[in-house]
Amino acid sequence: MLYIPDIILKIIYIFILLFNITPIMAKNNVYKYSFDNIDGEEINLEDFNGKPIFLVNTASKCGFTPQYGDLQSLFQEYKSTDLIFIATPSNQFKQELSSEEEIKKFCLINYGVSFNVTEIVEIKGIDAHPLYKWLEETYNEAPKWNFYKYLFDRDGELVQSWSSMTKPTSNKIKRSIKKVL
Questions:
Q1: pLDDT single digits (tens) 132-172
Q2: Among this protein's residues, is 62 annotated catalytic?
Q3: CA-CA distance, 114 to 132, in Å (whole number)?
Q4: Which of 38, 53, 62, 177 is catalytic?
Q5: Which of 15, 20, 93, 98 has its CA 20 to 30 A from that of 165?
Q6: What is the pLDDT of residue 14?
Q7: Which pTM was predicted?
Q8: DSSP secondary structure of 157-168
Q9: CA 142/CA 160 separation, integer angstroms
């Protein structure tokens, strides 16, 4: 004999299955994370809520390092929009300078970088920055090398990612940026 609560539970279960209802949970997105910038001040991505973000893991001693110049050009091109640029230096592939001060000087002197640059962070593995862990767990999109690029829309969701081989100033990146602006 079924009790009334058992019947109600079964009806709810069937309703959930039929209508694909998922429990309401706090939505996780890029705006839930923060970094310290290269000067040690917090960059709270929540402050950019509703703005698209272009994120790149970087290194100063890599064959792709000249992409810093391309990133600066792209930043200048979209400076009048609300697109946020963030570079996250990492020594994960053993190609980064040893201190934030060295990175800051290198970026400024060689490429005139004026967009957000974070402190040195881990981008892979158990010690990865929480945002990069989220990219891996949610999208299976961990960087495989330096200068992987990620574009997030105004809802904080990953729209597209590109490998080191794709220059920041490529037409495919620019087309994707225009779609999120």
A1: 999 999 999 999 999 999 999 999 999 999 999 999 999 99
A2: yes
A3: 23
A4: 62
A5: 98
A6: 59
A7: 0.85
A8: -EEEEE-TTS-T
A9: 13
